[in-house]
Recover the amino acids of this structure.
């Protein structure tokens, strides 16, 4: 069932219902924990999450006091040295992961390279299976690693994933929620399918972490990566994360390694010896400024249950879809996001011939979504700070844009936005 | 000649001369651009540079306004998207590099992996030569890449580098200034030696950039990497850099790649096609908070000539060595840093049986240096903010520590420092 608080919505949904839904929303107070520009309807938190107010103070403290006053001593005294593990354990509950399996470090793509090389360097199997709809950095990283290690990257359409799995497959590498359509894979089932042929499952969680409940341990996921700057709200270019299930940690020893993954980094030994546990996948010093903002962002999540967030997220996306269908009917939109709540993340994608122009026109009217080639208008609903009234306003303005047929010509609108 | 401003120093150097040297130092006003805790003699800027005061405001502006108010639009409107190249060009003069050859991204070790795999994946030659005194993360990264690509890492003592070069060598990978001893290689000569056997020279500039004039283009260096947080003062875990000489850019295509190195990142193409120029080595979104601090740090360098900085740096290190020899004679120290100004960077290393205890005792007395295993007390002199009076104070307190024989027992001092 699609749960839309506070009660079953009228059809068509009206503005009053959205106001009432916000008034009844137990998560509504969390919006004040973010800096949201007045009047802006920000439906792009799936690209860059909003600023947690606490990050301002925390980053300033880290710069002014930990760096400025503490200087080199802060690596120990301010706990910088342990942050990759400590923040990993702080993120772990959002992943459904027990302690000691998550490291905060580097970027999603770099972490993907690190884990893929670790598996492929030693696996007798030479195939990585992925889908062609995957976000392209994953495809580029995997094809680069495959080229380097003489492996094969098998790129198939989403619908052909199951038949692509056979006993030559080393890794099934997928993104949980599709960055364009918002369609969500059945993570547990596909992980089982990988295991059934003796392969590992490596999940990119960029578009699910912080928006969708995850149960990596229970679902027996092997490996995962994801970013810190979308629904996690860690800031532009925030540190990313990687997950290695405890059962694999002792044997996965990536060739893409550095001194902070050494068993004794300060022994300055000539030979590399990997640390026990997840720390062996750390390479270099983390970005301490980035870590500060990310920690402030993670602290907001400590106050909510993912199930509650998910319920609100589904309510927001269902309301948006209902309103678009009732108020923008006949405007040439096609819903590219599944209606089934089991099969969508926290975004709604609308396919339209003039999607680019519509997105530009909406931005001019204070509704920020984004365009994804070739014809997708994409709207993300970060449940920590998006309200039902924002959904109403977004569709109100969308209907206005569509009613003004001049704006349906993308070229016209692009000129208008540039000048 | 070792140039010690403002005039030839008396022997032994006295406190008054140090005061006069600061008064005559044309770079002295730059110290006010940094936040230096009162009374602290910070000789560890070669590990973590001091905070540029302007970074406080700049980081706050980026967090509060660019991220908080501008949100996703800041990737274009605040120029985030071009920062890796723009800041690369800002750093380039410090490297003696023309525009379009430097990228600010990721970490030193990761950049080393990226460049080493680019060369080794396609080179028929299978050997990387390096020295065993190299900083160990470079050794671990190179041995990991070599293992993965079936290459050989030939690790030899510093004195045996020349005979280790033969026509099997693909890359000579060296650190310009030794992290322990401060000894500096003849970069031009070793680059020539690599070229003479048909190999490329890859330099790690972590301990030279910002302290030692570099001329990568004139010296025909092929590849280089380095960090942003030592003499550059970019902050803890600051973004690093990589340099690829223009003549190599078209053919070096690293398998460790990502979407921002694609020719058209927003075309979302299935197949990877590397961008022209240095941008092909960018993988992911940069840490925007880290970039903000680093840019404030680089702006300070725009006001000085590296030759002038180098002159002061040599004056500081020569003064320190003179004072240690005149005031700490007979205390069991051995100077591990070359006296020859052509052969040292901007640090002085003292070898001593109780180096660990001495460093701890000095820290208690407000002089921050660091210990490097097994017996090195290391002192870095960042010429942008270290004064001659700091050198005097450091040796004054060092002499005091050495005179108090109880502190020469490392174990005693460790206990004292912990409690």
């Amino acid at each position: 069932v699609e749960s839309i608080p506070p009660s079953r919505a009228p059809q068509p949904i009206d503005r009053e219902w959205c106001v009432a839904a916000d008034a009844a929303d137990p998560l509504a107070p969390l919006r004040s924990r973010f800096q949201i520009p007045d009047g802006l309807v920000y439906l792009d938190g799936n690209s860059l999450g909003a600023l947690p107010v606490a990050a301002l103070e925390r980053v300033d403290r880290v710069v002014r006091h930990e760096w400025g006053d503490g200087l080199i001593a802060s690596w120990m005294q301010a706990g910088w040295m342990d942050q990759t593990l400590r923040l990993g354990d702080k993120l772990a509950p959002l992943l459904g992961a027990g302690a000691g399996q998550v490291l905060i470090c580097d970027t999603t793509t770099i972490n993907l390279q690190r884990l893929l090389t670790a598996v492929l360097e030693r696996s007798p199997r030479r195939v990585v299976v992925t889908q062609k709809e995957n976000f392209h950095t994953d495809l580029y990283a995997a094809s680069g690693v495959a080229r380097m290690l003489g492996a094969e990257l098998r790129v198939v359409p989403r619908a052909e994933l199951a038949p692509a799995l056979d006993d030559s497959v080393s890794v099934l590498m997928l993104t949980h929620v599709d960055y364009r359509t918002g369609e969500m894979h059945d993570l547990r089932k596909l992980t089982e399918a990988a295991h059934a042929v003796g392969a590992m499952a490596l999940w990119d969680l960029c578009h699910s972490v912080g928006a969708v409940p995850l149960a990596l341990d229970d679902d027996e996921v092997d490996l995962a990566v994801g970013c810190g700057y979308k629904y996690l709200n860690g800031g532009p270019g925030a540190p990313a994360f990687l997950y290695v299930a405890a059962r694999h940690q002792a044997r996965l020893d990536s060739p893409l390694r550095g001194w902070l993954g050494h068993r004794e980094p300060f022994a300055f030994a000539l030979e590399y010896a990997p640390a026990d546990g997840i720390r062996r996948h750390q390479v270099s010093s983390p970005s301490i400024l980035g870590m500060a903002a990310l920690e402030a962002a993670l602290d907001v999540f400590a106050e909510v249950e993912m199930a509650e967030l998910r319920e609100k997220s589904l309510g927001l996306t269902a309301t948006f879809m209902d309103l678009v269908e009732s108020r923008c009917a006949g405007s040439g939109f096609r819903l590219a996001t599944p209606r089934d709540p089991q099969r969508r993340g926290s975004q709604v994608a609308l396919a339209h011939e003039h999607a680019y122009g519509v997105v530009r026109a909406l931005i001019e009217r204070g509704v920020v979504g984004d365009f994804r080639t070739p014809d997708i208008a994409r709207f993300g609903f970060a449940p920590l700070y998006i309200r039902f009234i924002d959904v109403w306003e977004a569709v109100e303005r969308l209907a206005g844009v569509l009613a003004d047929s001049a704006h349906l010509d993308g070229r016209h609108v692009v000129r208008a936005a540039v000048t």
